[in-house]
Amino acid sequence: MTPEAFAALMDRAYVDMRPWSAEEVAATLARPHTHFLSRDNGGLIAQLVAGECEILAIATEPDVQRKGIASALLSDLIDIAAQENAARILLEVASRNDPARAFYTARGFAPVGTRRGYYTLRDGSKDDALVLSRAIAQRQSEDAPTSQGT
């Protein structure tokens, strides 16, 4: 998936949030330690640095949401992070995004902080970001998935 395609996907998937531009996606993918995973009609950008993995963006096509694509992407990322000996995964989620919060809670993420006014919504208003964390069980598997690392 190209940066342009992922930015367009984010535009369709992020109902309230301001999506990233293709330039922002490309610049993020160009940074060291950044991983891009894509599967079916979804994608995920994360960075693995200093024993931590941080999900920067995840999106799936609206008409196939809740079909397991985001779960599969997250599972792939957990496997990669475990192979790279990351201790935990962090992410931010908008405080008003109840479906996303439920998704992450069901997958073992717990709140560890709040960033006030972090997100700018499409209407220009602000929303807090809840910082969530999940420990990663270390796995030593030779057949763990790979990603496009830069």
Q: Over the alpha carbons, how many angstroms does the gyration radius reach?
A: 15 Å
* Main β sheet profile: 7 strands, mixed
Give the proportion of residues in helices. Answer: 25-40%
Strand content: 35-45%
Quick structural overview:
The protein has 150 residues and is α+β, with helices and mostly antiparallel strands.
What would the keywords be for this entry?
35% strand; globular; single chain; 4 helices; 7-stranded mixed sheet
How would you describe this structure to a colleague?
The protein has 150 residues and is an alpha+beta fold. It has 4 helices and 7 strands, in the order H-H-E-E-E-H-E-H-E-E-E. The chain has helices at residues 3-13, 22-30, 69-83, 98-106; strands at residues 34-39, 42-49, 52-60, 88-94, 110-120, 126-135, 148-149. The mean pLDDT is 90.
Task: Tell me the layout of helices and strands.
Layout: H1 3-13, H2 22-30, E1 34-39, E2 42-49, E3 52-60, H3 69-83, E4 88-94, H4 98-106, E5 110-120, E6 126-135, E7 148-149
Parallel strand pairs: 3-4
Antiparallel strand pairs: 1-2, 1-7, 2-3, 4-6, 5-6
Helix pairs in contact: 1-2
